[in-house]
Amino acid sequence: MSVRSDRFDHLTSDWATARPGLLLFALCLLPLLLPPTAADGLEYRREAVLSGELWRLWSAHLVHYSVGHAVLDGLACLLLAAGLRQIGAGQGMLLRLAVIAPVLSLLMLLAVPEMAIYRGASGLAMVLLAALSLTLWRIRPGLRPGLRVLAAVLALKLVADMQGFAVFPGNLPADIAIAWQVHLAGLVCGWLFWRRAGGG
Known about the structure:
The protein has 200 residues and is mostly helical.
């Protein structure tokens, strides 16, 4: 009985750890089932948002340009969210992301007027990456050298993206540039929203 109980408790704990990430992964994939015209109605379009279609501030982070794009973003969110939950820093994660998503869109609207269209959860993935890195910095001092290397790699990637160089293979259409502004804003938001969270 105790062995079965331990296994059940372990499975329950694993499910609780994975659940937010799995939900984010599913939300990235579900819009792929929609017809293209419906997906177009969910993406960030500057003029549409200015015309009052405010749902796009949230939905833009869930629609993608291709299956590969959605899977890549979804897997990143899944793994990072599970990592946050595993170290005890995932409380209120989905609520925070629900607040941060429109903040990222509004920052695009205000600070990047040349960005007419945006799709993807990579900004949210950057939020989770910043949150996970910040928490690990606090609770696992032995990981700090590796986290410094990660920060340097991210900085180099952002600079490369700013210059229009694709450091890592992407799944974006040829005429769509990497939205480095959203990635940078995601990192900043992740730090701001988790900086007082500690390890709990």
